[in-house]
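#struct-queue
[09:14] JT: dropping the first one here, sequence first, then the structure tokens:
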Amino acid sequence: MKRIETIIRPHKQACVLAALAKFGVTNVTVFETLGLARQVSQSRIFELSCTDKETRTGLIPKRVLLLFVEDDQVQPVLDIILKIGFTGEPGDGKIAVSQIEQFVRINPKEKPLQAG
């Protein structure tokens, strides 16, 4: 079993999730986040409470999608995210894949799944 974390543009979220659902992956956790990036022209202005004035921080809204998939699903899921999330502009995002040693659902009726 693998853990896939991907950072994408907010406006790509719905299309990526729809494509993943069509493929059969529906267990996705989504986080709204801000990140520092090279997209200086798109930087947002955020108020800094310690100075009582606004400053350009370079923080840009992004979405983090967290998925747990079987090993044979990794490449198709990556292909979907890469195809749908791509705009060709800097800041399209990143994808990280890591091995899961154990995966347990919080449900007393289910036994822990051994990832391998």
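[09:21] JT: and here's the second one, same format:
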Amino acid sequence: MVWRRSILIAAIGLGVPAANGEAAAQVRDATYRGTLVCSNLPFGKGLLRSSIQVVVSGRDIRYSQPVIAARGNTLGEETGSGTLDGDNLKLTGAWRGEGDSYEASYSGALKRRNFMLNGTQIWTHEGKTYTRTCSGAIKRPLAAFLPKRAE
């Protein structure tokens, strides 16, 4: 009976992440994927839904997402960077096309494996400025924080 208790205690110990900052950062280091939904623009139609990919490495963050036109074709890619401070991330980025462009900023907080994102895009279209809000979520794959199997 004693040996069973020892095995159980050892198994529980392996599943508990370390409380130090380095271990927490390693758990957050991953490629997160999700969806961002942005409000309509006067020159577009309907809500815009696009995929977003965010790569977290330590406190540094890089992200990208396709820029999709009202007709559904891809115009290019919004790219940006940001920082992770504890459980909070901040992203800034931009996209420039032939006649249009925008500056973007998003922020979010970590909840388990997800970051819930909120932000704005400041568009310039035909010499006029438009602001739209965006929200969404990105998720870290489960395998990103499970221990690697010994080979």
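[09:30] RK: nice, looked through the second one.
[09:31] RK: DSSP finds two helices and eight strands in the chain.
[09:31] JT: good to know. Strands lie at 30-38, 48-57, 60-68, 74-85, 88-96, 100-111, 114-125, 128-139.
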